[in-house]
Amino acid sequence: VAQRHGESVALAVQPEPAGPWHETSYLELRTRAREMARGLIGAGVTKGSRVAVLMANGPDWVVASFAVAGVGGVLVPVNTFATPAERDYILRHGDASLLLLQAGMLKRDFLAELIERHPELGEGVPGRLRCLELPHLRRILCLDAQAVADAGVAGIEGPDALTTLGADVPEALLDAAAAEVHPADDGLLIYTSGTTAHPKGVLHMQRAPVIQSWRFGEDMGLGETDVVLTAQPFFWTAGIAMSLGASLAAGARLITEPAFEPGRFLELIESERVTALHAWPHQEKAMAEHPDLARRDLSSLAKIEFASPLAPA
Fold first, then answer.
1. Is 50 helix (H, G, I), strand (E, B) or coil?
2. pLDDT tens sequence across 29-42
3. Angle at CA 252, nearest 5°, toward 247 and 255?
C-alpha cells in the first residue's frame, strides 16, 4: 500500500482543537516503521518475541504495530482503560519482554503508575530489567522524552534509545528478518476487556489481521477518496481490522482521535468532510442527541449503518 498510495495521507491527527494537523503519508508510515523495526532488532527482539504496546490511537501506535510485525514479533496491544492490576496481568500472561508506551493519556499517567507499582523497573538496567511480578519484561521504552527525563529513572529508556539501538542494524538485515516472517507465524495477541474475569488472550497468526483488513475494506466499499473518522481503540480487533487496517488497505485518509467526544466528532465530520464513521452505537446516539447536530453539515457522511440514529442527518 505504501508503493500504491505513496504521498497520500494515511493518518491524520489534530493534537489540539483548532491547531495544526499532523499528517503521515503512506511512504512516511513505511519509513518510520522500518526505522523502529531496526531499533527493535537492536533491542534484541527476535521472531516470536512478545512486544507490548500501551498507547492511545495515533501514528505512534500504528508505526509500532507494523515495526513489531515486520521483524516477526508478536504484538500485544494493552488496553488503555485497564487498571494497573489488569495491565500487569496482560504483561505477565502475555509474556511481554519489551514494553512500548506513551507517558500518559487523559487523566492517566501510565509511566508513573508503572514505576510506583514496580520501583525496581525504574531502578534497573535497560535491557536487563528484573521484576518478579513481570518476570519476562527486560526493557521499557517510553516515546515521551520529556516524561522520561522528568521521571529521573535509569531503567526506562526514551525514544532516542531506539535510534541508538538500531544504528548498527543494516537495512539488509531487516529485510532478511522480514523475509522469514510467514503468514502462519504467531503475530497478534489480543486481550478481551475482562469484564467477567481476567482478560482472555486470543492468539492470531500474522495473516489474520491482514486478511480481515482487506475483507473489511471491500465489505465497506472504502476507496482512496474516503475520509474515515474513529476513536475505536486499536487494542481491540474492530479498531485494528475495521478502522485501521481497512482504511490503510483502501488507501483512505484515517483521522484518529484518542477519545470520543460527540461535539468534537460532529465538528470533524463537517470540517474534514468525513465519508465513513466508525463508532459504537452509544457514541452515535450521543452524537444524534447533541445540541450541535442541527447546525452541522453531515452530507459528506455517506457510509454509515442505515439503522444509525445519525442516518437521518
1. strand
2. 999 999 999 999 99
3. 75
Strand spans (E) along the chain = 9-13, 22-25, 50-54, 74-77, 98-101, 139-142, 156-157, 186-191, 201-205, 227-230, 253-256, 276-278
Q: Name the pTM for this structure.
A: 0.95
Q: How far apart are CA 202 and CA 199, in angstroms?
A: 10
Task: Give the cell for residue 179.
Answer: 523475509
d(CA 74, CA 31): 20
Contacts 24+ apart (CB under 8 A), 181-185: 181/47, 181/69, 181/70, 181/71, 181/72, 181/206, 182/206, 183/207, 183/210, 185/47, 185/48, 185/72
Q: What residues pair up with 139 in beta bridges, in sequence order? A: 98
- Sheet containing 276-278, strands listed edge to edge, beginning at the edge strand earlier in sequence: 22-25, 9-13, 253-256, 227-230, 276-278
- Rounded CA-CA distance 305/292 in Å is 21
Cell of 191: 486481550
- The C-alpha cell at 39 is 531499533
- Cα separation, 219 vs 242, in Å, equals 10
Chain mean position to CA 249: 16
Amino acid at site 239: G
Grid cell 512478545 is found at: 50
Cβ atoms within 10 Å of 305's Cβ, excluding its own: 12
251: left (phi over 0), alpha (psi -120 to 50) or beta: left
Tens digits of residue pLDDT in 202-235: 999 999 999 999 999 999 999 999 999 998 999 9
Query: Residue 205 phi/psi, 5° resolution?
Result: -75, 165
**Sign, CA torsion 177/183/189/190:** positive
